[in-house]
């Protein structure tokens, strides 16, 4: 009897579910869209119940579609969960009921907490324990923000749960956190010993009791679905739940990353570029966590831009109403229309550069007070120039992160795999190839993180062999090869891009202060 696996990806703007066979054949898929809440500048949060509703709806619809083509309930062998980096995690009470919106990865409100830690903590020792730096991107600074600004919530919080852990608890009643999610929180996890670090939490002022005691691998079964939840999803009672982990790492897994040197760029709302290594120390300017596959031996090291597709969406929604109307009248995508207009323009969009720092910036800049910038504007520039500059700016941000690994870049595979929504753009793929100098490959199948979750689930349940894991379920297609002349132009322009932030940093910080982002002088002692 054929067996099938459900893979679910809880993303920033949608939840996607699919059912795949043990050979990777896609049987059914469904998705539910939503948007994070951004009530103030640099804030980005989500009510966990939005994720739960989307999870239930997408899985139930997926199961229904599979049943309609002859799949039986007993053939579904398990479910695995990929989820966005939940930042602070979901603050829950002892019944695991949410107490406060989850401060997700793109939330940068914890600027004062970040400054406080940088000023008062032994950063070398913190890095030695956690393998990570200090920034408002990391979940532990967001937890401190809740502690400092929502003391009633803090007092009532029993645990902080990553989204996949909270959903898994909802399904099974069991409570656990995977190592990839734990490591991504930053200053709470011992990267050498693979345990929560009471020493690190003591240094930054967090309570170890608020971390769920059970840590397991991403391929481990956390529990089985209860009868009530199985009925809600259209599944059989007792189906095992493989815990899964961070979406960027799982999408990377789907992209074929299995051994040190493999690397993938994920371009969705944000950008994450990551590679595998076995060394004990990551690059200081990047993020480090256990990988979702063989995580006790392999580390996933990645950097990322806070906005990628998010910057493109912002530009289109704010400035391209005419193009949206034209696209609607023609029955085409507005992005396809803008791409047609931008593609004939030369590299560099006639001397225009965009810094995509619309929610501060992550690696290697690490500055929540950084801001988006168009540099080089003049009267000859059109919306097409600006659109191309936005895409080029994101490609520069990708290359900036790849540059941050220094000499280790020599050990990387000489092809760049790209996953995420950006793969729908031929122009974007060519620009990335021309900026980085790497041939760009994409996955033939449409869904990456959800497919990676399904494969990870099959691994955890022993339904695929290690050889089949190494081979993977997805197929790579070469989408763009570098143009040598364009690459030379982009290398010259990248030097300008790289110099803009240092030159404008003080001005960016002054503008951030005008927006009400607390300066360093307003922080309090870590032990208050």
Automatic annotation (TrEMBL):
GO terms for molecular function: kinase activity; phosphotransferase activity, alcohol group as acceptor. Transmembrane segments: none annotated. PROSITE patterns: FGGY_KINASES_2 (PS00445). Coiled coil: none annotated. Keywords: Kinase, Transferase. It comes from the Bacteria. Residues 4-253 form the Carbohydrate kinase FGGY N-terminal domain. It holds the Pfam family FGGY_N. Residues 265-460 form the Carbohydrate kinase FGGY C-terminal domain. One of its GO terms (biological process) is carbohydrate metabolic process. CDD domains: ASKHA_NBD_FGGY_RrXK-like. InterPro entries: ATPase_NBD, Carb_kinase_FGGY, Carb_kinase_FGGY_CS, FGGY_C, FGGY_Carb_Kinase, FGGY_N. Belongs to the FGGY kinase family. This is Actin. It comes from Advenella kashmirensis W13003.
